[in-house]
Amino acid sequence: MNRRLFIKNSTTAAGAIAVGSQLSQSAFGQVPDAEPTFRRPKVILPVPTPSLQTQHVQPGVPESKLTREATGLLREFSTPLLFNHSHRAFFWANEFGRQSGEKFDVELLFICAAFHDLGLTKKFSSESDRFEVDSANAVRQFLEHHGVPNMRIQTAWDAISLHTTPGIAAYKPIEVELLYNGVALDSLGIGYETFPADVRDKVVAQYPRVNFKEDIAKAFFDGFSHKPESTVYTCNEDICSHFIRGYRHSNFYDQVTNSPFPNS
After folding, report:
1. H helices present in 146-234, as ranges
2. pLDDT at 264
3. What are the sequence ranges of the domains in the chain?
4. What is the DSSP string of 98-122?
5. What is the residue range of the signal peptide feature (predicted)?
């Protein structure tokens, strides 16, 4: 949601609560354990079924209908750069999960890795949402189509939407944290020194990092250059600062101090 829509929606909700409307009363009356109600984008970008020829998983990826189709979508609508990055992120995340000793949903983890950057591609990029949200909305539609339970869908949505946001994933279901850590290792090298060298070398040999540092930055920018406002207050704004001449980085402190509210 862009800032303009956020202000509009927040104002509407705040007004409703202030006057004790039906909206606020119904919110208080909700059952805590009820199934989550997903809030959907106004424009839904369809997620097609990939061709059978592309639906085959790579060695080491769990085999299922969902993982085959997710791999097929990567092959058909992504790029070699993102295909390799997504697979490396999965294998890093999977190893982190193995090291943790905790149970985790390896099938869902792969699907999250496969979808996490699809919002950078034209097929799945909206006009105004963050690319992470576009990717998360795509995985939600994909999993709903296959009748996956809401709890798993919400975990996948959270994992993908939060994969560039530090400080939150560790307090979500473990799949959310594993994806975050897998992406952070592959993109930023966080955890490189302590990651098993044999696993690292094997995965990189299978999914090479050819000119990755420069090309991934360009892929990011290509994915949201038509909507730089969607990067405000995120790490992706640094990409805009690099590629857009004269780009003015947003300043949260200035926005707070310049608020139209008078000091009391």
Report:
1. 150-161, 174-188, 197-206, 212-224
2. 74
3. 37-209
4. HHHT----HHHHHHHHHHTTGGGSG
5. none
In contact, 133 and 219? CB cutoff 8 Å: no
pTM: 0.86
Task: Round to whole Å and give the CA distance between 74 and 55.
Answer: 10
Cα 202 to Cα 59, 92, 207, 219, 252, distances in angstroms: 12, 11, 9, 25, 43
Please tell me the distance from the alpha carbon of residue 122 to that of residue 104, in angstroms, as a whole number.
32
- Token look-up 């106004």 returns 42
CATH 1.10.3210 correct for 37-209? yes
Alpha-carbon gap, residue 260 to 263, rounded angstroms: 9
Alpha-carbon distance values, 248 to 67, 171, 223, 245 (Å): 41, 33, 19, 9
Quick: pLDDT tens for 42-76.
899 999 999 999 999 999 999 999 999 999 999 99
Residue 178 neighbours by CB under 8 Å, 6+ apart? 93, 94, 96, 97, 100, 104, 109
Model pLDDT for residues 88-144, shown as the tens digit of each residue = 999 999 999 999 999 999 999 999 999 999 999 999 999 999 999 999 999 999 999
Residues 224 and 242 sit within 8 Å (Cβ to Cβ) = no
Asked if 258 and 251 count as a contact pair (C-beta separation under 8 A), the reply is no
